[in-house]
Amino acid sequence: MHAAISKKNQQARAIALQLEIDRLQEKLGERVDAEKIVKRHIQLLHRYNEAKDAAQILIGRLATIKQTTIRQIHEDYGLNDDD
């Protein structure tokens, strides 16, 4: 069975938690807006993916012109699966 927490202990805990929240928010900075950060990150991921897709199209065309495989083009240019 759970021990009952006194109202005084609950208030003390709430104050301690609020102080911790305040400390962490100060550490992050006042103007940090998580939604803006996430939105910006998503925008950057979209731009990255578009650039990567365009590069893959060009690599495919180069492979066609050279009559080789995309894998071979990757090897020729030192690209790995992470690029």
UniProtKB/TrEMBL annotation:
UniProt GO cellular component terms: Swi5-Sfr1 complex; Swi5-Swi2 complex
Organism: Pholiota conissans
Record's keyword terms, sorted: DNA damage, DNA repair
One Pfam family this sequence matches: Swi5
Top-level taxonomic group: Eukaryota
Coiled coil: none
The protein's name in its UniProt record: Swi5-domain-containing protein
Family of this protein: Belongs to the SWI5/SAE3 family.
